Input
Amino acid sequence: MADSNNPHFPYLPHTDRDRQAMLEAIGVGSFDELVAHIPPEIRAKELELPAGMPELELREHISKLAARNKPASEQACFLGGGSYRRFVPAALPAIVSRSEFATAYTPYQPEVSQGSLQAIYEFQTAVCLLTGMDVANASMYDGPTACAEAALMAGRLTGRSKIVLSDSVNPEHKMVIGTYARSCGLTLFTVPTPQAMTELKDLPIDAQTAAFVVQHPNYFGVLEDLERLAEAAHEQGSLLIVLTDPIALGLLEPPGSSGADIVVGDAQPCGNYLSFGGPSAGFMSTRQEFVRQLPGRLAGMTVDERGQRAFTLTLQTREQHIRRAKATSNICTNQALNALSMLVYLTLMGPSGLRELAELSARRAHHLAELLCAAKGVRLVFGQPFFNEFVIETPRPAAQVLAALRDKGILGGLALERFYPHLKNCILVAVTEMNSVEELNRYGAALASLLAKGAKDASLLPAGQHAEIR
Output
């Protein structure tokens, strides 16, 4: 330890002189000034560490601090909204952690990268089979960036600059699309969805619209009418971009069969653990006629000089390292290891296994919806068909209800007020195969008990005050 007297960085090797030199190079006077733009409420709090400890004692101390965390795996988890806790078969990490995959990087040299290239090619094939499209790329950073890149791709294909978004698209995806759009001269229009489903009436798609972006199942879990939306977009010469859940496609009709032009999504539910919202990989597929505008890398199958099957990167003008001035995107890498997890997962599950998993998630979600709505004052907000997520409204603020459920070891869902202020008392609940029937019953009983107790306590308070649910 180089500088044990500094109270802020007791276990970092840099001295005060080192840090001051770095701050001067950046152009700020202090570390506090460097992070002043970050709101205090979201800054990580400093660990309460002594100035210095022997390694053994330090490990014991850190282990005690870590033991205060309560991971989702130790609670009844009903979190969703884009990241899900799903079962990962034991065979998957055994395959993915092999050194051939874990240490591989960019397969620029096909003669020494046949294994990686074949895995990427098979991933692309799996995505095409899942989405009903003709061609897929070798994955993107994640679902949000795949969605944003699809919007840019639509602009290039149509020569138009207007992107129309359904308000039922995941808010985080919308934010990333907005960031890309502002930097690339695109104009965004958002279509309100008061009933959680995109309505065709007064849809602002016109001759200037490059694409309409819809999520299916959408952020509220509701199933959209893709065929009618595709017709509305195509009538104006616009493209339909569909953001989807790969697990749901085990049960639902592929978007390609419903008229989608570009299909994107996130690989996280397929063999990737729920770890701080990831790890992740974005997938993207499209029609054959659009392949030259598909961003990211693309692995192709060919034959070598001896006539044997071989794999290679193809159509590389889309990447920065070849003719970068004409590249379709500055995404010049891919999430190969996480994409491989999706490939291995889909291979292990197979079509029938994936369908069974999707059906199980849907059945349990509908069962839980009935249980929760049996509690006094709770209702299902949207009446449209849903897959494995749904929205309930409680007679109390959602944040208050969720905090009380956490005290009982239940992660009850996501409060929607953060992104949708008018849904103040609403909770987005997700159900997967990891939620046993016992957990569903436990959630239903806990919510009913909390709300009954809260209503009793509230009656003792002066008008306008609310009891805290425990």
Q: What stands out?
A: The first strand starts at residue 76 and ends at 77.
